[in-house]
Design goal:
Layout (H helix, E strand, L loop, with lengths): L19 H27 L4 H23 L4 H34 L1 H6 L5 H31 L9 H22 L2 H17 L12 H9 L2 H12 L8 H23 L3
Helix pairs in contact: 1-5, 2-3, 2-5, 3-5, 3-6, 3-7, 3-9, 5-6, 6-9, 6-10, 9-10
């Protein structure tokens, strides 16, 4: 009598079950997206009392930069007007990231809400992404108003590139991450004082609303390594591509600053206290 051995043969009509690792990866992505959505809603509701005021202040700063610099110059030449109109959006994005973000983060550390946030079972990069989204949302109305004010005030015609939106998001992400990392790593009082210094450097000693050639040679060299000039060059090239361009080296410098600042902010948030 022969012995029959049963071998399991897969039924080709039955769909294969996904591997456990794939299920785990899918669940992780779903949880991360859900956490991001919930954190974004929580951050918007948390700042809802001051959100309209923050947007108004940023919008006023953007318009004042365009019109106020023009009053200081007097008879604004077309080339200078183009610098003012294309520099104001960068000032708006960078001032939100360098000044408002670290100030609000320092306040959270002082009142203890930042410590409470660290107790939530949410990945720190998800928390960072939700917070940076809120700051980008606050800056965007000012960016649009600055462009409209510049075109209206100086009767300009811009040649906008298709990549202006991702370029603006890159600038906003870089600036907010630098401010976030600064506030997370430094004591609150030091971070808030540093923001006061940065706003003067930003408005008076950075080639955003005027050419870099107006600065001393040593300061031009410094700005070649800092992210501010690449941010301004990228925004200018995106808004007036017929008049301005940006070098590959400047783009690489900005991307390196963005990656380093996001990593620093994420590391600072994930530190155990």
């Amino acid at each position: 009598m022969s012995t029959l051995t049963a071998h399991h043969q897969p039924n080709p009509n039955v769909p294969k079950r996904p591997a456990a690792s794939a299920l785990s990866e899918g669940a992780t992505k779903t949880n991360a997206f859900r956490s991001y959505r919930l954190m974004l809603i929580w951050q918007l509701r948390r700042q809802s009392q001051y959100l309209p005021l923050l947007i108004v202040v940023q919008s006023a700063l953007a318009v004042a930069t365009v019109i106020g610099y023009g009053m200081l110059i007097g008879d604004v030449a077309p080339a200078a007007a183009l610098f003012l109109a294309t520099g104001a959006p960068t000032i708006t994005l960078v001032s939100v990231g360098f000044v408002m973000t670290p100030q609000m983060m320092s306040q959270s550390k002082t009142e203890g809400s930042a410590d409470w946030m660290n107790t939530l079972p949410v990945p720190r990069l998800v928390f960072l992404a939700a917070d940076l989204t809120v700051w980008t949302f606050i800056a965007l109305p000012g960016v649009v108003l600055a462009i409209v004010a510049g075109v209206w005030r100086y009767d300009l015609e811009l040649s906008v590139a298709w990549w202006i939106v991702p370029a603006s998001l890159l600038i906003s992400l870089t600036a907010a991450s630098i401010g976030y990392a600064m506030a997370a790593l430094l004591p609150p009082m030091v971070a808030m004082l540093l923001t006061q210094l940065l706003i003067f450097i930003l408005l008076l000693f950075s080639p955003i609303s005027f050419p870099a050639s107006n600065l001393p040679a040593w300061l031009q060299t410094v700005h070649e390594w800092l992210p501010i000039q690449p941010m301004a060059d990228l925004m200018r090239a995106g808004l007036a591509q017929d008049a301005f361009s940006i070098s590959t080296g400047a783009v690489i410098t900005l991307i390196v600053w963005c990656a380093a600042s996001v990593a620093a902010a994420g590391w600072a948030l994930s530190r155990r206290r």
